[in-house]
Automatic annotation (TrEMBL):
Belongs to the YciI family. Residues 1-114 form the YCII-related domain. It comes from Luteimonas endophytica. This is YciI family protein. InterPro entries: Dimeric_a/b-barrel, YCII.
Amino acid sequence: MQYLLLVYTDDTLLEALPEGQFDTMMRGCLQHADQLRGQGKLLDFKQLEAPASARSVRIRGGRASVTDGPFAESKEVLAGFNLVEADSIEEAVRMAQEFPWAGTGCIEVRPVRDVDAVRKRVGA
């Protein structure tokens, strides 16, 4: 089964890291990602640009509104994701715990829905 590991970071905690620690963490994270990919466990991953570069789109009453930045005020912002293959949510949680960003934010582990099953159910 596939799980999405949503990586949230807190800039305050990242900025408080000792000089060079972020690069060390990132290097270890990328090396770990390479290992997981080699094992067939990591299917894809992406990093996101800073929240200030985002736009949030809402449609209410038939009218669109576009605002700058993330959808909500929060210390932790979505920074990227990892799409993994795991036998259970417990295995996906263990994988999330191996990434350093759980220490500077949060990694949400969420099962990926089988869209083909949804298509079949709704007749699309």
